[in-house]
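Tokens as discussed.
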């Protein structure tokens, strides 16, 4: 991750996930990320609706010159790159992997803009729609609204070694000469 906002948001997400592969959506609070809220968004993992925005920060909406709520995320990308971004969202949600991508787009004035895209999964809960969060931040300032974006590079972050809480062992004598050790967490 190159952008400081991406690193900060990832560190917060990583802290909140604790011993799990991904945090629950309810564990992510807006207060600690107040300065980043304009760059953060939440997507619904709904293939039939083409991964709609559930929430989009004000800076993300300003970059694209429109309100993004309920708009399909892949439609922000060029036609040639939409299948790639759909696959990336699918991997993040289904494999609970983090994705970081370099993105470029041309502004309405013809300038080229470079951005960093971070996609972070939420833990799935029964009877609750699957979603993911992300951050889109420009690497350098630019003027104007962005046109269709293209993914120039991306990678998935490998799972950190799973952190386990220390377990307490309890020794039970089940029968004469037979010992059973039961793990208690």
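Sequence:
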């Amino acid at each position: 991750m190159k952008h400081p906002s991406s690193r900060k948001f990832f560190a917060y997400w990583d802290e909140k996930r604790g011993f799990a592969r991904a945090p629950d959506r309810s564990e992510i609070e807006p207060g600690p990320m107040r300065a980043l809220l304009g760059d953060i968004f939440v997507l619904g993992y709904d293939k039939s609706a083409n991964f709609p925005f559930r929430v989009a920060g004000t800076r993300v909406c300003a970059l694209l010159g429109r309100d993004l709520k309920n708009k399909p995320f892949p439609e922000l990308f060029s036609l040639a790159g939409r299948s790639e971004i759909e696959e990336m969202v699918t991997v993040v949600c289904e494999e609970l992997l983090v994705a970081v991508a370099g993105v470029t787009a041309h502004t309405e004035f013809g300038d080229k803009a470079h951005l960093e895209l971070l996609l972070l999964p939420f833990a799935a809960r029964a009877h609750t729609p699957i979603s993911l969060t992300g951050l889109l931040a420009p690497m350098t300032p630019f003027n104007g609204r962005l046109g269709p974006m293209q993914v120039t590079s991306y990678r998935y972050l490998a799972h950190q070694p799973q952190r386990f809480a220390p377990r307490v062992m309890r020794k039970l004598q089940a029968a004469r000469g037979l010992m059973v050790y039961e793990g208690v967490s």
